[in-house]
Amino acid sequence: MSRSVLIIEDEQELAKILKRHLEDLSCTVQLAFAGDTGLKIAESKPFDLILLDIMLPGMDGLEVCRRLRARRVYTPVLMLTARATEMDKVLGLEMGADDYLTKPFSVAELIARIKAIFRRVDALSEQARDAKEPLRFGEVLSIDPRSREVQVRGQPIALTHKEFDLLLHLAQNPGRVYSRGQLLDAVWGYSHEGYEHAINCHINRLRAKIERDVANPELLQTVWGVGYKFAPEAIPP
After folding, report:
1. Structure confidence by residue, pLDDT tens digits, 67-126
2. What is the model's pLDDT at position 202?
């Protein structure tokens, strides 16, 4: 199956190398070498994946990602960054990126990440087709796998792809405690040491959107020393 990928990367030689490797995966690839140009292309038609560099002329990648998510463009975004600090990585995830790789990276690792994203998208699409009814938890939370819509206390909320995937996975397995590594493997399709903070970022963003009190979460609970669980028993009957 052919996939459509947008690469927004100002290092033109790197962008062309990535394009050739993606074409070997039967992907149709479009290139943009500046942030503002890439944003216009990303908004003009649907893509299956966006590879997005952070350091870009015209508009940096963080702002491109922020604007896409603000306009409810939820195409999976794999961010490429030469900045290796923890804060930069966390900021990228907070802006709505689904994943990131730090330069320099191997093409093999990048392709593995891309394949993992595609596998997860396919698996979740199949789950959505098989789903018969939305998951409902009292009057507090409704999750529809088919439309990928979430309502909290009757109000629709906007989630990124990975926020939705993470919430759905936990909600489909209420009460089960997952380590960060298990959630990475289940939702991202891989588990690498040092990437567990991606789970922390997404849990924090989800809590900000669905919890009444972020400081005292009821639904997405931390199990200290282990990981996280979805706790529907905290929802009033």
Report:
1. 998 887 888 899 888 766 666 666 677 677 888 888 888 989 899 889 888 887 787 677
2. 87
For residues 186-208, give the mean pLDDT. 78
In whole angstroms, give the CA distance from residue 37 to residue 155.
34
Sequence-ordered alpha helix ranges (H) in the chain? 12-24, 35-44, 61-70, 86-94, 107-130, 161-171, 180-183, 197-210
**Where along the chain do its domains lie?**
3-120, 134-234
DSSP result, 89-129: HHHHHHTT-SEEEESS--HHHHHHHHHHHHHHHHHHHHHHH
What's the one-letter identity of residue 117?
I
Q: Which fold has domain 3-120?
A: Rossmann fold (3.40.50)
Domain spanning 134-234 has what CATH number? 1.10.10.10
